[in-house]
Write a structure and sequence with these properties.
single chain; 602 residues; alpha/beta; eight-stranded antiparallel beta sheet; seven-stranded antiparallel beta sheet; 18 helices; 36% helix; globular; binds 5-amino-5-deoxy-1-O-phosphono-D-mannitol
């Protein structure tokens, strides 16, 4: 989704710095970009469709010496990606960049049209700029105008604003979209996230909803909603700029796949040494809801399986954007677990706020430290997997699964369901995960061989039962996202109720059967597809490979593990198949078309 950065400085390099910040925000997903900078007399605006490198090229034709700039990457919502719709937008005395959506923009636009404003773009943001200019024309007070405009806006926003008559000061505010203020030796920032400023500083402050900020090159002043000055602590980011580099890997996705052995073993080691959430008492709640989007929802389904099967706790998993339609099920004795890598996903945030309104206790499983979801939940369990840049999540997902494994273990312990032998088995499994993941990753040749067999196909199916069927969903999403191949995930037993009609000669079917109890049934379902001509790729554990030639054209062999870690091993193999396939198809692996890393609109 959109990314913003504003920088005001004692030097003349604000354009260069803002542009480097925009490049670090690229991972959020975008389709155009733009920058406004003070040229000594006025704000110049340069915009470009497509990659930031296009904007960079355009800028090389201008004198970009400037002490104040605001810049933006746009992920189109209102109006197609083109230069007119790209930000910054300038109306009257106001130039601004915006991340979010002004939902009532058409009502405001009508009011502005009646007051003589005209519009060039199709965007809600140009309306926001005009409305702010309108408010400023009435109050002649910059902060008050921003307060008044925000009162009229419905929706979500993080704004960086520069007024024509104070062109080296950035005014900023936010609601439901992230914004951080950064402090460097030469000047100050207002940006969507810390990654944008880490090349220059690791000192930052977080802006709460409805707060306002005045940022000059020398001083940053914070205000509450009534415009009373407030004090803010400065924090120090623990992530450093190097973590935002590929460090020799061809893609961020590959780097993040290779970071999984450490990320996952860290979670299990912390659980056994210094666990911050062991005090979570499941017996206090009569039900558990888990709510998330996309891959985080898939991780939640693994969580549900583990909590129900081993912890004997009934769990409902809901897609965040649908959760409000289950409103009547949320009570003060509900434990809601929200799961989010970015901690900024608008649908998940809305679900958490709804549940809090209804009195539920909310726990977050979050990766991004200091993100909105992390701050708003009653208890945050951080995955601490480090920054994830590739749009397609890998370590984000597996670290969420790892946390769920520990929660299921806790539930078993609390209910007295953990006998000494099982405990020893699971502990051994968790504490040896690094080696097992490394052995899965080292099978790269096999994944490439499979990718070569499937990359020219248009349709592909994933099938599995039980815990394997939840991993199928994630494997299928990974392939779709980065290779643009159509793929569907089906519970193996459900295929014959309709979808099997799509299986034809050569259709690739990836089947997963790691669960001992369900093995035979899954194999029967694989044979049903094989009888219809499928190209069968079989994913199983080392103890299950006898006689699989009968129904498998390719086999991926995984180390045997318990259900508490097997999904992690399985999905990593599928991540690598998706990666190799997308590479053969020549796709933009880290930034797939139409997708955004951080989905900050509902
Ligand atoms: O940041 P979140 O975990 O809340 O994001 C949720 C989904 O948007 C995300 O998992 C999405 O499905 C990814 N593109 C999957 O790779």
């Amino acid at each position: 989704m959109c990314g913003i950065i504003g920088y005001t400085t004692r030097k003349n390099n604000s354009v260069e710095v803002a542009l480097s910040g925009l490049k670090n925000l690229e991972y959020r997903g975008y389709d155009s970009s733009g920058i406004a900078f003070f040229d000594g007399e006025k704000m110049d605006i340069i915009k470009s469709k497509g990659k930031i490198s296009n904007l960079d090229d355009k800028l090389s034709n201008f004198n970009t010496n400037s002490c104040c700039a605001i810049a933006h990457t746009r992920w189109a919502t209102h109006g197609e990606p083109n230069e007119t719709n790209a930000h910054p937008h300038q109306v009257g005395k106001v130039t601004l960049v915006h991340n979010g959506i002004i939902e009532n923009y058409s009502v405001l636009k009508d009011e502005l049209l009646k007051n003589g404003y005209t519009f060039k773009s199709e965007t809600d943001t140009e309306v926001a700029a005009a409305y702010l200019d309108y408010c400023y024309s009435k109050t002649q007070d910059k902060l008050q105008a921003l307060v008044d405009a925000c009162k009229a806006f419905r929706g979500s926003y993080a704004f960086d604003v520069v007024y024509e008559d104070e062109p080296t000061t950035i005014y900023a505010t936010r609601k439901d979209s992230p914004l951080v203020i950064g402090y460097s030796h030469d000047g100050n920032f207002a940006a969507s996230d810390i990654s944008a400023i880490l090349n220059y500083t690791n000192k930052y402050s977080l802006i709460e909803e409805g707060e306002f900020v005045k940022v000059t090159k020398d001083i940053v002043t914070f205000y509450n909603k009534d415009l009373h000055e407030i004090e803010k602590k400065s924090e120090t980011a623990t992530w450093d700029a190097a973590q935002y580099q590929k460090n020799g890997y061809e893609h961020f996705m590959l780097k993040e796949i290779y970071e999984q052995p450490k990320a996952i073993s860290d979670i299990f080691n912390r659980y056994y040494t210094n666990c911050s959430y062991k005090d979570l008492d499941f017996s206090k709640f009569d039900k558990i809801h888990i709510v998330a989007c996309g891959s985080a929802m898939h991780a939640s389904l693994v969580g549900k399986y583990l909590l129900q099967t081993y912890g004997k706790i009934p769990v409902m998993v809901e897609i965040a954007s649908e959760y409000r339609y289950s409103e009547e099920l949320i009570t003060p004795s509900t434990l809601l677990i929200v799961v989010s890598q970015s901690g900024e996903t608008a649908d998940t945030l809305a679900a958490l706020r709804l549940a809090k309104e209804k009195g539920a206790y909310v726990v977050g499983i979050v990766n991004a430290v200091g993100s909105t979801i992390a701050r708003e939940v009653d208890k945050c369990i951080y995955t601490y997997a480090g920054p994830e840049i590739a749009v397609a999540t890998t370590k984000g997902y597996t670290s969420q699964v790892a946390v769920f494994s520990t929660l299921a273990l806790m539930a078993m312990e609390q209910k007295g369901l953990l006998d000494k032998n099982i405990e020893k088995l699971i502990k051994n499994d968790m504490l040896n995960i690094e080696e097992k993941i490394n052995s899965v990753i080292s099978n790269r040749e096999k994944y490439l061989e499979i990718a070569n067999q499937i990359y020219k196909h248009n349709d592909l199916f994933f099938i599995g039962r039980g815990i394997d069927s939840t991993v199928c969903m994630e494997g299928s999403l990974k392939l779709k996202e980065i290779s643009y191949m159509h793929s569907e995930s089906y519970s193996a037993g459900e295929l014959k109720h309709g979808t099997i009609s799509l299986i034809d000669k050569g259709t690739p079917v990836i089947s997963i059967a790691t669960d001992e109890k369900l093995f035979e049934k899954t194999v029967s379902n694989i044979k049903e597809t094989k009888a219809r001509g499928s190209f069968s790729i079989f994913v199983t554990t080392e103890n299950h490979i006898d006689n699989c030639d009968e129904f498998a054209d390719e086999v991926i062999i995984l180390p045997k593990a318990t259900d508490f870690t097997e999904p992690i091993l399985t999905v990593i193999a599928l991540q690598l198949v998706a990666y190799e396939t997308a590479k053969l198809r020549g796709c933009d692996i880290d930034k797939p078309r139409n997708l955004a890393k951080s989905v900050t609109v509902e």
